[in-house]
């Protein structure tokens, strides 16, 4: 059985490999039938969380899967289906704690992280029809203003000023600056940028209390940028919009790689913090508002 350290390292090595190849693994290019959910789903319909979202987005992107539901080999068999011969599974992890048998019940529980393989439904034959998404409608022309996203942004209460030539969150003033809308190539670029900065905004002391003091080039800054980018991808998925990564790719990736190569747990920590951001911002969605 692999150790926790080995599992962290396998995940980190996968992320590093894709970053070095120029692919940001938390980006889910939209294709085909992802109507059911942009966030990867378990066989039960429950959404995956944290680093598992990143790993499954990456695997789906590289394999070109249209579907976004995943299950174990045993789950497929229990449904009367069969993973096709030669198909490779994708690593996901399960977190938990246990108390060794030789300890008292009130002793400190020991955390564990267990890795296991899941398969996309496109790798499996004879699944029930409910695992097949309906065909997408012919897409309409792009709409410059997406009302559901605009409403979500308004409900967060974040102070946003449009104008100028840069996008940033200013912790001291607790506000966000975004370039004029006309400077963006599309609504995808606009909303990806706004949600990235709202992710930073969520880290203020009065909200989630992350460390926002890092200077550009520092490990703390690189980690916060990684959290913001992954969480923006998560929130875009929740809102049903495509996510486009921010620019400055080469510089940011260089900083991320430095952090990941020094600490094999960094990307899992970043994904967990990004999930916390998405969970916090979900309270402002129309489904709960």
From TrEMBL:
It comes from the Bacteria. One of its GO terms (molecular function) is single-stranded DNA binding. Residues 5-119 form the N-terminal domain. Residues 147-273 form the Polyvalent protein metallopeptidase domain. Coiled coil: none annotated. Pfam families: ArdcN, MPTase-PolyVal. Keywords: Plasmid. This is Antirestriction protein.
